[in-house]
Each structure stands twice: as structure tokens, then as C-alpha cells.
Amino acid sequence: MHHLAIYPGSFDPITYGHLDVIARGRRLFDELIVAVGRNPGKDPLFTAEERVDMAEQLVADLVAKHPQGAKVGVRAFSGLTVDFARSVGAAALLRGVRNLSDLQYEVQQAVTNREVAGLETAFVVAGQSFAYTSSSLIRQIAAMGDDPSALSSMCPPSVVERLMEKKRQKHPALRRLLEGGEEG
Hints:
alpha/beta; 16% strand; globular
């Protein structure tokens, strides 16, 4: 039996924590799809195409460095995660858990996904160095900070470069963070 899992998220932007979950998921499943979705409750910084491009590049680097493990693909999707999972024949969702707050939310989602769609969820606990890293925090630092090196422990250099380009362009999502507006 072929065990395909999807690792859904907005990946806005992708972080070292996300890459850690992908690397660990490659040891658990036969195939993994990084499912780049849109969260309607969030104000996106990067387009879906940009997020897919970043993920594809970083996943390719990860697989090149560590060729053993499951095949990994990256795909954008819209709509419900469970519908996308069904459409690709996924046996499970892969989720990273950073702390107790994440766990509470993720367990609630996992129970719902199992009851509604018969879809199981596999959790991996974040490494200590990723326990407090989030894409939201990274966007806040990019918007408010002056030193891009502050981001280097949280996301790869190519992502830091793209964040700084968004800042130079005065992207509306970063401006709203500076103005104290709701990010979502």
C-alpha cells in the first residue's frame, strides 16, 4: 500500500520549521505533497505562485542534500484541505506542532477531518529551535525590523531576500502591519 500524505499550509513564507516537518515527513510516508493553500483569514504577503516557487526550490535543495526518503511534490490548492486531500488520494495529513496551543487547535482539526472526511492526521513535534517560529512572526519582523539578518535563523537566505524585496516594494500587507492593522 502506498502512503501519500499532504502537508497543508499557507507557507507565507516558508520557514526552517516547515522544512524540518517536510524532512521528517519524508521518513514517515512513501510520498509527500506540500499543499500550498490560501487561508481566507490571513492577509497574504506572497502570491500563491511565489509561495509554490519558494517551496519548490527549497524542497529540491532538501531532497538533493538528503536523497533518501519519500518523493516530495509541491502543489497549490484552493478550497478545503480535505477536498484537496481526497483529490490526490492522500491517506493522511501531516502537521507540525510547536507548542500546547498548536496541539489543542490541531487535535480539534484532526478530529473534525477524521469525522467529516475519514482522513487521519500525523503530528510531528517541532524541534526546540523552531518552537516559536511562525510565518506571522517573520512577516512582523520583516515589516518592522531594519536588520534582515534577524530573519536568518528562521528562514533560508532566498526567503529573506524575497522578504526584503517585498519591504522595498512597500507591499500593502507589510504596510498594514506597520500601521497596526489587522493581519488576520
